[in-house]
Design a protein that fits this description.
By secondary structure, this protein is an alpha/beta fold. It is 50% helix and 20% strand. The chain folds into two domains: 5-128 and 164-233, Spore Coat Polysaccharide Biosynthesis Protein SpsA, Chain A; 236-324. The protein has helices at residues 15-28, 47-54, 69-79, 98-108, 136-143, 146-149, 153-160, 184-190, 202-212, 238-257, 259-293, 298-324; strands at 5-11, 34-41, 59-63, 84-89, 92-94, 112-120, 126-127, 130-131, 170-172, 174-175, 179-183, 216-227. Strand 6 and strand 7 form a beta hairpin. Helix 1 runs parallel beside helix 2, helix 5 (136-143) packs parallel to helix 11 and helix 10 packs antiparallel against helix 11 (259-293). The longest helix has 35 residues, at 259-293.
């Protein structure tokens, strides 16, 4: 029997969340020819037991270690049979009609290689999920002391596509990795995800290669999927997640912008990041202490202290290695 959609979900310790995701697929896509493949990255929360018990129709690949997001998605893709491949985060709730809308777009736009639909936050508001490809200047504004100076602010806004109209079908550079549907025929030509990216920028790299191959990436407002966000990354200390992010960022830049240009970028970015984190530590402690003393909003005070803590832990744990090696 021909399969229209292969749904690939990577799971790492999100037992309840992934169960809700699979239940939503069962209810919203009962009339679609599909297969569901969950790739479990050595979860320790009995995710696999729950999935096998409650969702016998789901194929489960059990890894003995955490292979990362890109490698796990590739495992699912390599065993899949569908005409279209849906890479879906475990912390999503598929709503009726969303999968059909993406299939329709890929079928009706012959230049399309990959697409995503409208994403919603848990409160029903639109969650931005389209971006331009990242630039050196956009990253300098977000992660270095240039942010305090206001330099490259326009570049950051351009990267984030702040004014994107989420009510019309559009070609874009990239979509975020929470929900992506691609044509198998294209992936067979260009390959799937780059496994050197453990986490972060794997979707950026894939979209870049799709456009290099002459195909297009699309957004469609027809169909909605709720994305809760950070179900797995929240289980890891934020400073460790930040280290993974920067490692992936530099790998992506070296791959697509060249080693020489990335080297000169690093010469500015790394000192700029250290200055920025140092400022975050001192301003966080100072403003947090003032806020605590004046009995201001406790949440804001806690967040200030937390940002100072995260910045300090990153510098202590990864400072030297990041400066010299990444």
């Amino acid at each position: 029997m021909a399969i229209d959609i292969s749904i690939i979900i990577v799971n790492w310790n999100t037992r309840n969340v992934v169960s809700n995701c699979l239940r939503a697929i069962r209810e919203a896509a009962s009339d679609i020819s599909k297969e569901i493949i969950v790739v479990d990255n050595a979860s320790s929360d009995d995710s696999v037991v729950r999935i096998k018990s409650d969702f016998p129709e789901v194929a489960v690949i059990e890894n003995k270690s955490n292979k990362g997001f890109a490698a796990a998605n590739n495992q699912g893709y390599n065993t899949s049979r569908g005409k279209f491949i849906l890479f879906l985060n475990s912390d999503t709730i598929v709503q009726r009609g969303s999968l059909q809308s993406m299939v329709s777009l890929l079928e009706n736009h012959h230049d399309a290689g990959l697409c995503s639909c409208r994403l919603l936050n848990s409160d029903g508001s639109i969650q931005p999920n389209v971006r331009h490809f990242p630039s050196f200047r956009a990253m300098l504004f977000r992660y270095t002391f240039f942010k305090y100076l206001g330099l490259f602010k326009a570049d950051r806004a351009f990267y984030r596509m702040r004014r994107f109209p989420y009510n019309e079908i559009s070609q874009v550079d990239q979509v975020t990795g929470a929900v992506m549907m691609a044509k198998r025929s294209l992936l067979e030509k260009i390959g799937c995800m780059d496994e050197k990216l453990f986490m972060y920028f794997e979707e950026t790299d894939l979209c870049y290669r799709i456009k290099e191959a002459g195909a297009a990436v699309y957004f469609t407002p027809d169909g909605e999927i709720t994305h809760l966000g950070r179900a797995s990354s929240d289980k890891v200390d934020s400073y460790k997640v930040q280290a993974i992010f920067f490692k992936s960022l530099f790998y992506y830049f070296r791959k697509h912008k060249g080693k020489a240009r990335t080297f000169f970028f690093a010469c500015v970015f790394k000192p700029g990041l250290f200055i920025y984190l140092t400022c975050e530590i001192f301003t966080g402690l100072l403003l947090g202490a003032v806020g605590w003393g004046l009995k201001l909003d406790s949440h804001k005070v806690s967040r200030r202290f937390e940002r100072a803590r995260e910045s300090a832990l990153f510098l202590i744990r990864y400072g030297v290695s990041f400066l010299l090696l990444s």
